[in-house]
């Protein structure tokens, strides 16, 4: 999770290849459901939708990486990720409403601090293997 433009999708692709995981990209999901509501209720709905889709993939005994902003503690709690990777690579994204709403996570598995998906994917895998 992280602000738009923080490198979530690029890192997700690197990790998915290494973990043989399916990807849930929030923009693709929003397009599929034709739901571009970025109000608080729209973001909570998207978080629930992402959770439901992820659970369906998990039931197939597959890994899944959900690639989305998830800007508040409430949206993160609703999604209830097994692990959060926080993309803390930018201080401001391209959308003012998201910047105003975004709160850094209080808990996360891994914090990425620069845009280098190849490097960070290896570091994340190392930590996963030691967990």
Characterise the protein shown here.
The chain has one domain: P-loop containing nucleotide triphosphate hydrolases (Rossmann fold, 3-Layer(aba) Sandwich), CATH 3.40.50.300. The model has no long low-confidence stretch (mean pLDDT 97). The protein has a two-stranded parallel ribbon. α5 links the parallel β3 and β4. It is an alpha/beta fold. It is globular, with a radius of gyration of 14 Å. The protein has six helices and four strands; from the N terminus they run αβααβαβαβα.
The shape is globular
Taken in chain order, the helices and strands follow as HEHHEHEHEH
| Percentage of residues in helical conformation | 40-55%
Beta-strand content bin: 5-15%
Q: Any idea of the CATH class? A: Alpha Beta
Number of helices: 6
- Strand arrangement in the largest pleated sheet: 1-2
The total number of structural domains is 1
Low-confidence stretches: none
CATH topology term: Rossmann fold
Q: Architecture, CATH level 2? A: 3-Layer(aba) Sandwich
Supply the CATH superfamily name: P-loop containing nucleotide triphosphate hydrolases
Gyration radius from CA atoms, angstroms: 14 Å
**What structural class do you assign from the helix and strand content?**
alpha/beta
């Amino acid at each position: 999770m992280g602000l738009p433009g923080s490198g979530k999708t690029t890192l997700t692709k690197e990790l998915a290849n290494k973990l043989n995981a399916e990807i849930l990209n929030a923009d693709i999901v929003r397009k599929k459901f034709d739901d571009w509501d970025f109000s608080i209720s729209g973001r909570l709905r998207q978080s629930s939708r992402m959770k439901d889709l992820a659970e369906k993939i998990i039931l197939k005994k597959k890994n899944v990486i959900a690639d989305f902003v998830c800007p508040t503690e409430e949206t993160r709690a609703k999604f209830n990720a097994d692990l959060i990777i926080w993309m803390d690579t930018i201080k401001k994204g391209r959308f003012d409403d998201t910047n105003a709403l975004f709160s850094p996570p209080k808990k996360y598995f891994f914090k990425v601090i620069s845009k280098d998906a190849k490097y960070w994917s290896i570091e994340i895998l190392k930590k996963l293997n030691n967990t």
